[in-house]
Design brief:
The chain is mainly beta. The protein has one domain. The chain contains no helices and seven strands. The C terminus is likely disordered.
Length: 87
Amino acid sequence: MAALALGTDGKVYVRTNEMHEQPTPASHWLVFDAAGQLLGRLETGSNVSLSAFGVGFVLGQVRDQDGAARTYRYAIQPSKDSTGTVR
C-alpha cells in the first residue's frame, strides 16, 4: 500500500504503487466499500496526483513541464462485474 484515502462517499481508496520522480506507466488504486468489499479499480496517468474522492468523481492535479499545476475533476463511471451487477 502506497497511499490511503477516505472519500466523501464513504469508500476507501488505496494506491497500490508508489509515486516516483520519473514517470511510470500509471497509478493504480483499489476502491473498497465501508465493509471492506472490493468495488473496483482506478487507473490514472503517471502525471495525475489524486487529491479528493467523492460521489462519482475524483479530483486530480496535473503538472505541466514548467511545474504549474491544474486541477481536474474526473468522473468515475460504475462498471458491471462478471455477474452483470453494476457497482
